[in-house]
Design a protein that fits this description.
The complex is a heterodimer of chains A (about 375) and B (about 290). Chain A is an alpha/beta fold. Chain A contains twelve helices and 14 strands. Chain A folds into two domains: about 190 residues, 3-Layer(aba) Sandwich (Rossmann fold); about 140 residues, 3-Layer(aba) Sandwich (Rossmann fold). In chain A, the strands form three sheets. Chain A has a seven-stranded mixed beta sheet, with helices on both faces. In chain A, strand 6, helix 6 and strand 7 form a beta-alpha-beta unit. In chain B, helix 1 runs parallel beside helix 5 and helix 10 crosses helix 11. Chain B is globular, with a radius of gyration of 19 Å. Classes of the chains: A alpha/beta (about 375), B mainly alpha (about 290). Chains A and B meet through strand 7, helix 7 and helix 8 of A and helix 1 and helix 10 of B.
């Protein structure tokens, strides 16, 4: 009996001690720190850490709460991601998870976080299935900060048809990629509504085909104003190079967030004059404070800038939800995240759609290739057709 | 009509690169009677040597090109000595050589993944690729160059095989390796020479492919198509390999252009199946009872 009493006193004392000091809440960060995608994951964790320090110093959070970031490496593999998330939830008792940047990984861990009731915010996971399940129901605890592929397709269609006034489009897409097929489908649907006409729609097999001259010869015959490339970097660079070699010198190229800087190595000057839809632009003036702080803290240029910015802003999105929830209860954080409205973040103003958990009408960035660089060209939000 | 001519030109340009690869395949096949799947590795090796030599020699394509051909030739000899010779001395079943060559193709690919990384690389613009317009037809200057250089190398090879003593030895060995050995031909030296030639031709196509597309460790996968071309033309026959390549390249482009771009590989591998069903020796191949 005495012992029990002693224990109770001890507990009461320690509880009192904690209450007077600050309470640490743990936030898991799911990133690939080794393997093929390591460069992206490392940048995300560094950027998130930077945001956490700023948030803890700023007083955004309810009084006495401080965030501790718990990064877990999923080694670019889905199986490891599932294990990492399980450990975050069971051992570290995290109140929320940020990351990963991959749609496949987030789809794989979605059942886990939703069963455990821990909110998760994906960074660059653009596939609709990340937040909405196969039956079209929203996954209650899954969120994202980036726009989705359907939205990207709409931006692409809007910018081509309305802003650049290019009314005849040809498409060359990858039949073996869900990303490419999805983007193509949503582009076509919206482009027609915006008054555009699809004059050619051809395919190739990604990862195998490197010669697109047969398709391009057919495309050239249809005389399009713009060629839409909803693909990955290597294929897009090769397509542009081969099209120019076939003498198509006036046609304009546009594509999605598959753009990567290494495309200049393959396509060289032929890339000049092309437009790319992306999440953020490195030379967007609004982002300057982030790049300066990042450089100061890590002495590094943050080359994987899309990942860096989205990871940084995802931490602020979470912090804002904790502030409005007034506590670190995962359920309360989830409810607050779902009701995020007009939250001004560094790269965009975010409103979460409660029906899909995607950012609603988010600004997309248009990059333009000029003098061997993809530079910030425009910020767009498509009108309804 | 115009687009038909354009697609045929595209096809010939693709076919001429296949031809260089297919001839290398056929050359090795004619002597050792197995399909050397590590051939794509020689091609990638040639590409990377050229890439690194260009940076070292301040973009001198002649020096870099020559070193690349020699380097790839030597790597082919090394592959043969390391992986094939021990097998060939133990057994005359060529199936083991085939399996070893599949292994070597993975080894070489991963060697370059480790040495150079998986990134895509581009050769500096040492070979011009600008378009030339003739009426409404467009030909890349590079395509013409590829076509001419391919013809030059294949003619050179033909001359070597027909007019020199070593060429005679290779032809004799292609007829019967054992008898050639019994007649005093140094078989090991001869096989090394054949691999050197195959590696050299692979490097030429490796440079072409790096300029036309891009250089990365998996670039050697394109040799699958050249292999099909060699089979269609008749494995072991050099002329057959060239003809098969040109047919295949043109068929691929015409299919992609006029039927469906998704069917191009169906046509390529369909051609392989049809050949194996109706004329297993290929267009110009010689009849051999056992083919692996």
């Amino acid at each position: 009996m005495k012992k029990v009493l002693l224990l109770a006193v001890c507990l009461a004392l320690s509880a009192a001690g904690l209450a007077s000091a600050e309470t640490i809440i743990k936030v898991g960060y799911l990133a690939a720190l080794t393997g093929d995608w390591a460069a992206y994951g490392q940048t995300e964790v560094k950027a998130a850490q930077l945001a956490v320090e700023e948030i803890n110093a700023s007083g955004i959070l309810p009084k006495g709460l401080k965030i501790e970031l718990v990064p877990y490496d999923f080694r670019s593999r889905q199986e490891d991601a599932v294990n990492a998330v399980r450990r975050m939830i069971e051992q570290d008792k995290v109140v929320a998870i940020v990351g990963a940047n991959s749609s496949g990984v987030n789809i794989a861990v979605a059942p886990l976080v939703n069963r455990a009731g821990i909110p998760q915010i994906g960074t660059v996971s653009t596939n609709p299935r990340v937040t909405v399940d196969e039956k079209g129901r929203v996954r209650p605890y899954s969120f994202r900060i980036c726009f989705t592929d359907p939205y990207q397709g709409k931006v692409l269609a809007y910018y081509a048809a309305k802003k650049l006034k290019l009314k005849k489009a040809a498409i060359l897409y990858d039949v073996s990629s869900d990303y490419s097929q999805g983007l193509r489908e949503f582009f076509i649907e919206n482009y027609k509504k915006f008054g555009g006409e699809i004059v050619a729609d051809l395919a190739f097999r990604g990862g195998v085909d490197v010669d697109f001259r047969a398709q391009l010869t057919e495309i050239a015959k249809a005389k399009p104003d713009v060629i839409i490339l909803p693909n990955m970097g290597k294929e897009m660079a090769l397509t542009i190079k081969q099209a120019r070699e076939l003498g198509m010198k006036d046609v304009i190229f546009m594509g999605g967030d598959g753009y990567a800087d290494f495309m200049w190595d393959i396509a060289g000057d032929t890339l000049e004059g092309s437009y790319w839809v992306n999440h953020v632009s490195p030379d967007d003036p609004a982002l300057r404070p982030f790049f300066e702080a990042y450089r100061k803290k890590y002495n590094d240029e943050c080359k994987e800038f899309v990942n860096g910015i989205l990871a940084y802003d995802a931490m602020y999105l979470l912090a804002d939800a904790i502030r409005r929830a007034g506590s670190a209860d995962p359920k309360a954080i989830r409810d607050a995240l779902e009701n995020t409205k007009n939250l001004k973040l560094l790269h965009a103003t975010i409103t979460i759609d409660p029906n899909t958990h995607d950012p609603l009408n988010k600004d997309a960035v248009i990059l333009y290739c000029k003098e061997r660089k993809a530079v910030f060209h425009d910020k767009v939000r498509p009108e309804e057709p | 009509m115009e687009s038909l001519i354009q697609q045929i030109i595209n096809g010939l340009s693709l076919g001429s690169v296949y031809a260089l690869i297919a001839v290398g395949y056929s050359l090795v096949y004619s002597i050792l009677l197995f399909s050397n799947f590590a051939h794509g590795g020689f091609l990638v090796t040639g590409g990377y040597i050229c890439y690194y030599m260009l940076t070292l020699t301040n973009n001198n394509i002649w020096v870099a090109g020559a070193l690349s051909l020699i380097g790839a030739g030597l790597s082919a000899i090394a592959t043969e000595r390391l992986a094939y010779k021990p097998i060939r001395e133990k057994t005359n079943l060529t199936l083991y050589l085939l399996i070893a060559s599949m292994g070597m193709s993975i080894v070489i690919e991963n060697f370059w993944v480790i040495m150079a990384g998986g990134r895509f690389r581009a050769l500096p613009p040492v070979i011009p690729t600008y378009p030339i317009r003739i009426g409404s037809i467009t030909i890349s200057f590079f395509d013409i160059l590829v076509f001419l250089i391919t013809i030059a190398f294949l003619t050179g090879l033909e001359f070597f095989l027909q007019r020199t003593r070593w060429g005679l030895a290779i032809r004799a060995a292609a007829y019967d390796l054992r008898v050639a050995g019994l007649m005093g031909v140094n078989v090991n030296k001869l096989i090394s020479l054949v691999f050197f030639l195959a590696g050299l031709l692979a490097a030429v196509s490796g440079i072409f492919l790096s300029v036309r597309y891009t250089l990365y460790p998996q670039l050697g996968f394109i040799t699958i198509k050249a292999f099909v071309a060699a089979v269609v033309g008749g494995l072991g026959s050099l002329r057959g390999a060239v003809i098969g390549s040109l047919i295949l390249g043109t068929a691929e482009m015409l299919t992609a252009g006029f039927i469906s771009s998704q069917l191009r590989d169906v046509v390529v591998f369909g051609a392989l199946v049809v050949t194996l069903l109706f004329k297993p020796t290929g267009l110009l191949g010689k009849a051999i009872s056992e083919k692996v």
